[in-house]
Amino acid sequence: MDRFLVKAAVGGLKRRMEQEQTGGAGLSWRRIQAEGLDCDYTVLFGKAEADEIFQELEKEVEYFTGALARVQVFGKWHNVPRKQATYGDTGLTYSFSGLTLSPKPWIPVLERVRDRVSLVAGQTFNFVLVNRYKDGQDHIGEHRDDERELAPGSPIASVSFGACRDFFFRHKDSRGKHPSRRLAVVRLQLAHGSLLMMNHPTNTHWYHSLPVRKKVLAPRVNLTFRKIRPTTK
DNA sequence: TAGGGCCCAATTGT
DNA sequence: AACAATTGGGCCCT
């Protein structure tokens, strides 16, 4: 059996055990797979609980302002088309637009979501990036998450609240004017209260984006939990 | 009419 | 030191 199959089997077993631990709630998972792409999707929080968490996120999360909310692209400065914040374990640092920053210390609502994700994913996380999209005009372009910052092989857990948004994966060799390969775009919708587990090696082969959707009028808050490497010096 | 998808424009950091 | 990452606007298609 190759190591991917072994990993899948272990993941499946873990998941089954945790479903039992969650009181037999029996989360139903959707497996999303393509060449080098391995994700699991479920709705983690029912509407009432998701509503409550969303409200608390809206009340408590403090987003970057000023220079940290701007970016230079092709010589022109822009406000990033979303709001961002980072929270995590004390003592951690990460790099962001050429700076070394510390995440803000965890707040209760983020710990609550983190702990639920840890339970069902069988993984721990020491960091979360919060992205707030005020409406369908807010978006994020195609990118991969910075792997040098991540613990090798660790998954990224993406939890969504608020407006349902389309979400795309595009293979790294299928981008640009002259793609060397033509793999289909993988399209998902990320619903209120949902969890998308992006398992290794998804992030090494596939870019992801949240496209503009002009018909969407409501805000969405997304939490991506990660395990980032402790800073060594 | 307008939403959506694709391409293009420089500079900076790694 | 080669290469990757970042956004908005213009064009085209439906």
Structure report:
The chain is 22% helix and 35% strand. The protein has 233 residues and is of the alpha+beta class. The protein has one domain (29-225): Jelly Rolls, CATH 2.60.120.590. Strands 1-2-14-11-16-9-5-8 form an eight-stranded mixed beta sheet. The longest helix has 19 residues, at 3-21. Mean pLDDT is 89; it is low at 1-13 and 16-21. The chain binds a DNA duplex (14 and 14 nucleotides) through strand 3 and strand 10. Its main location: nucleus. It is an enzyme of class 1 (oxidoreductase). Its EC number is 1.14.11.33.
Summarize the structure.
Substrate binds at residues 74-76, 94-96, 146. The protein has four helices and 16 strands.
Give average pLDDT, whole number. Answer: 89
- Which blocks of ≥5 consecutive residues have pLDDT under 50? 1-13, 16-21
How many E-type strands? 16
Main sheet: strand order? 1-2-14-11-16-9-5-8
Order of helices and strands, N to C?
Answer: HEEHEEEEEEHEEEEEEHEE
Distance between the termini: 40 Å
The fraction of residues assigned to DSSP E strands is 25-35%
The shape is globular
Number of distinct helices: 4
Give a quick account of the main beta sheet: strands, pairing sense, barrel closure.
8 strands, mixed
Number of spatially distinct domains? 1
The CATH fourth-level homologous superfamily: Alpha-ketoglutarate-dependent dioxygenase AlkB-like
Assign the CATH topology: Jelly Rolls
Radius of gyration over C-alpha positions, nearest whole angstrom:
18 Å
Helix content: 10-25%
Structural class: alpha+beta
CATH second-level architecture: Sandwich
